[in-house]
Amino acid sequence: MGAWDLGPFDNDGALDALGHLDAGEDVPGGLAQVMREILDEDEYLDAPELSGAVAAACLVGARLIGSEPDVVAAGWLERHPFAVTDALRDLARATLDRAALPDDNELYDLWEDADALVSWLERLAPYREALAAGS
Fold first, then answer.
1. C-beta neighbour count of 81 within 10 angstroms
2. What is the pLDDT of residues 64-120, one digit of tens each?
3. Percent of the chain residues past pLDDT 70, beyond the cut
4. Fewer CB in a 10 Å sphere around the end CB: N or C, the chain?
5. How far apart are CA 44 and CA 107, in angstroms?
6. Would you call 33 exposed, middle or buried from its count of C-beta atoms within 10 A (0-12, 13-18, 19+)?
7. Within a 10 A sphere around the Cβ of 125, how many other Cβ atoms?
8. R_g of the chain computed on alpha carbons
9. With 0-12 CB in 10 A as exposed, 13-18 as middle and 19+ as buried, what is 93?
10. What's the rounded Cα separation, in Å, for the pair 103 and 44?
11. Per-residue pLDDT tens for 106-121?
């Protein structure tokens, strides 16, 4: 049975992405690659791929916040220190902007169909605010 909940780290796509990132040595490069892959895609995005990119973007936002209420993300950030550059912040912001586009991706559509879109977007709001601060 797969994981599926409102938090950016509460689904299989996110957990798979975090697992792949665990194996890499270049944390900022790995985060950037996950986000670039969906940002470079012109077609409708599938939920698992976008979920991984959203998780990557939220890790960048969480690093800026300085604390993370999600136990999965908190542990991941503790194991993988990295500095947030302007370029990484921009990729993360663009990723979360893309996730919030109607008719562009399955993740948005699934939350909308479940009548949970507002709740999902509210869960992403602290990360979006952190990424927007100082820009």
1. 8
2. 987 666 777 888 889 999 999 999 999 999 999 999 999 999 999 999 999 999 999
3. 93
4. N
5. 10
6. middle
7. 12
8. 13
9. buried
10. 8
11. 999 999 999 999 999 9
Provide the 3-class DSSP secondary structure of residue 83: coil
Q: What are phi and psi of 120, to 5 degrees?
A: -65, -45
8 Å CB contact between 64 and 131? yes
Per-residue pLDDT of 44-56, as tens digits, reads 999 999 999 999 9
* Spatial contact of 51 and 34, defined as CB atoms under 8 Å apart: no
Cα 36 to Cα 39: distance, rounded to the nearest angstrom: 5
pTM of the predicted protein model: 0.93
Q: What are the tokens at 49?
A: 């791929």
Residue 7 has pLDDT above 90, yes or no: no
Phi/psi for 4 (5° steps) reads: -160, 110
Nearest CA-CA partner of 14 in 120, 122, 126: 120
Residue pair 59/76 in contact (Cβ under 8 Å)? The answer is yes
Q: 54: which 2 tokens?
A: 């959203």
